[in-house]
Specification:
Blueprint lengths: L1 E6 L9 E5 L8 E11 L1 H8 L9 E2 L4 E8 L11 E4 L10 E5 L3 E3 L6 H21 L7 E4 L5 H12 L3 E6 L2 H9 L4 E4 L5 H8 L5 E6 L6 H6 L1 E9 L13 H5 L4 E3 L3 H4 L3 H17 L11 E3 L3 H9 L7 E4 L3
Parallel strand pairs: 9-10, 9-12, 10-11, 12-13, 13-14, 15-16
Antiparallel strand pairs: 1-2, 1-4, 3-5, 3-7, 3-16, 5-6, 6-8
The structure holds NADPH dihydro-nicotinamide-adenine-dinucleotide phosphate (NDP).
Catalytic activity: 2 a quinone + NADPH + H(+) = 2 a 1,4-benzosemiquinone + NADP(+)
InterPro entries: ADH-like_C, ADH-like_N, ER, GroES-like_sf, NAD(P)-bd_dom_sf, QOR-like, Quin_OxRdtase/zeta-crystal_CS
Family: Belongs to the zinc-containing alcohol dehydrogenase family. Quinone oxidoreductase subfamily.
């Protein structure tokens, strides 16, 4: 028997239950991982709430963790029992002591990277990698806007932007978060609770505005983001923390200056094992060099049994950086 989080109906954090289950053996091309640290991602709240509805109920939750391979299924040759791995995009069920994962979603974990660091940085770091290096290749000296800059993805983006020599303008909702984003390397910070985002972007860029906006907040910042873009700029809408953007009249892109919009996801950029390995190597190199430092405060490490409390805190906007679930407690 093992423990996991599951939910039988979509809804608020209350639907999360901590239950016993009997892990099945890994199927063909799968590995079984004993999780040591589990990454909490905002996307998990979309699945739990039904915004991204799970295929069946009851369902497991979570797609990211780091741990040790305990069994391998048929056809797996590149990993073996005892290997340390980190995985993302695993299919729902990572909020668990044990999870069966497609072997091509798991990367071998370099010795210098702890389970906690891996689970706190893998999915979020791969996301920053594809956003800043592939969706739009950010250039040295380039000024751009990145929302939720003190969040899990956001703090990694601040550091990656600095390492590239680019100037990230980050939005945050409190002075403490502003300080944290600045420490992480944001070039400038806008407090979205008391400043007009587009007006501040114009001011910071002497009226030029920016060529690209990375927006994970969604509904609440859609117009601010478009208003922050210069002519023919690119709006990268990659999340829905405040709700999804719906009902858009494409004419607005013309009115705001012949803008471009993309709605990317990690699944569209890391599509096979080779792409997973090459993106992970970029991330692991940034972690190993110290260019990116990810530290999870004790107040954001939760026993697996307390996933409900972890979701409440994440959705309250009071977290900074990444949060983790730790199995076995
Ligand atoms: P975060 O730690 O960034 O938490 C979300 C943050 O969004 C909050 O801390 C808050 O920061 C901000 N926010 C703004 N408005 C709201 C609101 N109304 N309710 C709640 N939060 C709000 O989460 P993650 O690092 O896990 O993920 C960041 C974003 O990136 C998410 O939207 C996620 O869906 C997206 N994502 C997308 C991926 C993709 O490939 N498309 C992959 C991974 C993540 P503040 O209070 O400072 O405004």
């Amino acid at each position: 028997m093992a423990k996991r989080i599951q939910f039988s109906a979509t809804g608020g954090p209350d639907v999360l239950e901590y239950v016993d289950f009997t892990p099945a053996d890994p199927g063909d091309q799968e590995i079984q991982v004993e999780n040591r640290a589990i990454g909490i991602n905002y996307i998990d709240t979309y699945v739990r709430s039904g915004l991204y509805a799970p295929a069946t109920l009851p369902s497991g939750l979570g797609t990211e963790a780091a741990g040790v391979v305990t069994k391998v299924g048929r056809g797996v040759s590149h990993l073996k029992a005892g290997d340390r791995v980190v995985y993302a995009q695993s299919g729902l069920g990572a909020y668990s002591e044990v999870h069966n994962v497609p072997a091509d979603k798991a990367a071998p974990l370099p010795q210098g990277i702890s389970f906690e660091l891996a689970a706190a940085s893998f999915l979020k770091g791969l996301t920053v990698y594809y956003l800043l290096r592939q969706t739009h290749e950010v250039q040295p000296g380039e000024v751009f806007l990145f929302h939720a800059a003190a969040g899990g993805v956001g703090l990694i983006a601040c550091q990656w932007a600095k390492a590239l020599g680019a100037k990230l303008i980050g939005t945050v909702s409190s002075d403490e978060k502003a300080e944290r984003a600045k420490q992480a390397g944001a070039w400038a910070v806008i407090n979205s609770q008391r400043e007009d985002i587009a007006a501040r972007v114009a001011e910071l860029t002497q009226g030029e505005k920016v060529g690209v906006v990375f927006d994970s907040v969604g509904k609440e910042t859609w117009l601010d983001s478009l208003n922050s873009l210069k002519r023919r700029g690119l709006m990268v809408s990659f999340g829905n923390a405040s709700g999804p953007v719906t009902g858009v009249d494409l004419g607005i892109l013309n009115q705001k200056g012949s803008l471009f919009v993309t709605r990317p996801s990690l699944n569209g950029y890391v599509t096979n094992y080779q792409e997973l390995l090459s993106a992970s190597q970029e991330l692991f190199a940034m972690l190993a060099s110290g260019a990116i430092h990810v530290e999870v405060p004790e107040s954001q490490k939760f026993p697996l049994s307390e996933a409900k409390r972890a979701h409440e805190l994440l959705q309250s906007r009071r977290t900074q950086g990444s949060s983790l679930l730790i199995p076995g407690h």
